[in-house]
Amino acid sequence: MFEIDAKDQYYRDLNDMVRAAVDKGEKEISLKNVNGQYYIATGLRGKLDLSVEGVPGNDLSAFMDGPTVTISANAQDNIANTMNAGKIIIHGNAGDVLGYGMRGGKLHIRGDVGYRVGIHMKGVKRQSPTIIAGGTAGDFFGEYMAGGVLILLGLDSPENSSIVGDYLGTGMHGGAIYIRGPVEQKYCGAEVGVIDTDAEDKKVLEKLLKEYCADLNLDYDSVMSRPFKKLIPVSSRPYGNLYAY
Amino acid sequence: MDHNFQKDIAGCGLTGLISKKRERVSGSIIAKSLTLMNDRGNGLGAGYAAYGIYPDFADFYAFHIMYDVQSARFSVEEYIKEHFHVEKVEEIPTTPVKEIAINPLLVRYFISPSKGSITGDGNGEDFVVNAIMKINSEIDGAYVFSSGKNMGAFKGVGNPSVIAEFFRLDEYEGHIWTGHTRFPTNTPGWWGGAHPFTLLDWSIVHNGEISSYGINKRYLEMFGYKLALLTDTEVVAYLFDLLIRRHGLDVATACTILAAPFWKDIEDLDADEKEAITALRQTYSSALLNGPFSLLFGHQNGLVGINDRIKLRPLVAATKDDMVYMASEESAIRAICPAPDTVWAPRAGEPVIVELEN
Q1: Closest by Cβ to A139, choosing from B310, B329, B331
Q2: Staple B194 to which of A19, B47, B184, B250, CB 3.0 to 4.6 Å?
Q3: How far apart are CA B85 and CA B93, in angstroms?
């Protein structure tokens, strides 16, 4: 374990130290006393474990391609922007605009998430990004979603309470959103259909949620104790003809 | 100096704190919080507002005035002496810092309206507001940037730490503080364009853009406000003054007007609430703030944080004992309060209203 004390370090200096450690071949790096430093783990590639103590700043793990990042506290905005591969585990809450244009890898959050989570996520062929949040979400969950999987659990909310905000899946045209609780059509984008989960969905959920529960020490059976709703886009390529005629 | 520009699109950082029990804290605390978000700004504007800093002059309006030219000072002081009792005049204490090569002349006045001069409401506040509008719009190169009682704004062109050092912020103690670092993109950064924007006891720091500036400005002009600082945030300070002081609305109602619920959500309310909010939206349609914003509104009795209705700018709140903190980033709170009791992200359009006890 290679330790770096981030206390009062400017974000550029801190990230230089992290990159220098990675270049030297360190595979387990621990950052202590982090508070607000931007761009931690941004652009890092390959297999390595990075643990963060404290609240990391915005743009954590942007363009990340491979590493596993574990945050013991809350995290801020713009995590996993255009992330390609790897995993981020957050034990607290996280902020707005998570997984913007995310194209692969996993983002596992124990607590609540903010607005515009999973905006413009995309998946192609074997690439399928996943965001799972254990608490509640703000408005515009899955906005312009083009691929991948978003799961919202509401683990700390009473049964049948609303755990997601307004404008759910607005502009969605690919991928799937699973909500563990009720979903009202009036809070969904016009392109979104709300359906019950089937056996195929259960297989998807089992695979993803078993890993999530293992990461965050949660009981898989109690996570599965409530029914899920599935949200999918019901129009395909609505603007496909826009420039064709 | 020609400040002929229209509006401001900003990606800024803000922070604020309040001690509900009125424990006064040093300005170095808020500066530390704001400095953590240094990179949200670009050095073209930073500032602070503080409440409870002038207890020895609590009955006087504390005018902070910036002068581009010495001659403006003569004109303003002639005007003030004619209409106000002047308890004390002094240059605002500053420390030379190498990052600030040029600064306006900064003078503060502790004043009260002369008895014979008062027009408008009986307690003189209309009179004071009119005097501020007159100075800001009619005397070239003079700007009243703070005018409340037992409070003050300190702002200029520079980074958060530079402005704090320049104004010797650590020498002030207040029970409410706000701070702001600016990233002007549409208008030059100039001393008057830094936040906070204030009028009487109201102060605003703002991250975002008030797209409805033109509508709000014309609406305010009907009530005699003169928009002289040429930056969108100015309208927010004057709207709060209009709604709360002049129209007698409470803080929550004022927030409902500025960040009004969408019509589709009003449809779902109970009949009484639907009627009330419909009436507010219709009456005050020109006071609606459109565009992305998170802002902190400081006043004599408390601190308010509010977002636009779809949360296009960040805002995080936290509590610790009797303290409440609000900032653009959680880390800015943790920089001065490492272990808060609670931390949460306020919902879009739902104000966090904190009032002083007693």
Answers
A1: B310
A2: B47
A3: 22
